[in-house]
Amino acid sequence: MNEADSERIGRSFAARGFELTDSLKAADAVVINTCTVRQRAEDKAISQIGRLRKWKLARPDGKLFVVGCAAEKLGRKYIRNRFPFVDEVVGAKSLDKIEALLPDFPTLPDFPPENRHSVQKHTTGQPSPLPTFRPPTPRLPDSPVSAFITIMRGCSLKCSYCIVPAVRGEASYLAPEEILAEAEAKIAEGAKELILLGQTVNSYSYKAGGESVSFARLLEKAAALPGLARLRFMSPHPLFFTDEFFRVFRENPRIGRYIHLPVQSGSDRILKAMRRGYTRARYLDIVAKIREAAPDAAVSTDFIVGYPGETEADFRESLSLIGEAGFSFAYCFKYSRRTDERGLEPDLDEAGMDERLERLLAEVKKNSGAILNARIGRIEEVLPESRDFGRTSANFVVRPERGAELEPGALVRMEITGVVRNALKGRPVP
Ligand code: SF4
């Protein structure tokens, strides 16, 4: 979500004649897009803002924006008191306001468009290369082949451990025409894959003029756009799957055969305490329906270990779910009371958390290895994102065998010949 927001902010600058630069010296404006999902991300944002004091001293006419989720959580007052040299603080709920702030940029009248620069920084978990693009054909930070489209903002669920509803607000949905126009524009710029984004992406529903567009209908329309090779979406929530969705998924092979479906725990008791709204059986039923619609589909997930009250027996339910659901991958996290609405203390100490995390990761690794190895010998359609890697429809990374090169953006059939670490190895075939 943050990367998509950063890209959108970058486009607002670009529309006013700015170019992105990775040189702080050359920058007329700096945007720090903050994350608060973990303490480390928030700390990184704070220290990055602190480091910009020097830049601001050297460039008093430059403009420093602090935006995003940590900005929302910490608040304008706190940030301005601690860092008086920050010009604008824009929380995640009001990112659209950045547009209105740009025309006030004090140096604009003095600089011809070709001399304007801005630099964006993410403070999300993974370091992300700084985007460099020139209007009017902005590119995505990580891959020109794949483009994000935000279809909703915020979340109306109340999972006990989650800070998202507090910093991003209630769910709101963008109009389908707006989404499809953005999709067409990104395809025209060269994107071959679109990723529809939302915190509970499949809760999408838009009503206007007596007509209602469901998530399934939106997927169907987007999948039919000319020039598109693949459509993906992240992240769906188990509460919002419908029969209409499974029909559309089955009938449209352009929709990637991969679903990231966060489960968080395999224990009904813990799921209830987390207020996730489903049971293990219901979750497994959805996984079965995904595989019924697309037998090749890969499903990955998120787990939290050490949630308050999680016993060894509860934890074992998470362990056993890995094989039962056949997860291709899982992001595993330790419970943090920091983002928990009730601030509950975990029962486990740090060592106990680490021990469960390690056991869970080992099980995920074992299962992923078996799933990757089962792909050897198959012919897969791969969408190359660079010369040395692409992804299958089920989202497995494929690297070409030594000596072979891929053409970014051009779908290619590849025979899978092996597994190297977490990726497949393959060779193009006619
Ligand atoms: S559905 Fe996701 S974003 Fe919404 S509250 Fe739960 S964990 Fe947070």
Architecture overview:
- The structure is a single chain.
- By secondary structure, this protein is α/β, with parallel strands linked by helices.
- The chain has 4 domains: 126 residues, Rossmann fold (3-Layer(aba) Sandwich), CATH 3.40.50; 114 residues, Transcription Regulator spoIIAA, CATH 3.30.750.210; 118 residues, Transcription Regulator spoIIAA (2-Layer Sandwich), CATH 3.30.750.200; 54 residues, Nucleic acid-binding proteins (OB fold (Dihydrolipoamide Acetyltransferase, E2P), Beta Barrel), CATH 2.40.50.
- Helices cover 34% and strands 23% of the residues.
- The chain has 13 helices and 20 strands.
- A 5-stranded parallel sheet has the order 1-5-2-3-4, sandwiched between helices.
- It is globular and about 60 Å long.
- The chain starts with a helix and ends with a strand.
- The relative contact order is 0.09.
- The site of iron/sulfur cluster (SF4) has 9 residues, from helix 6.
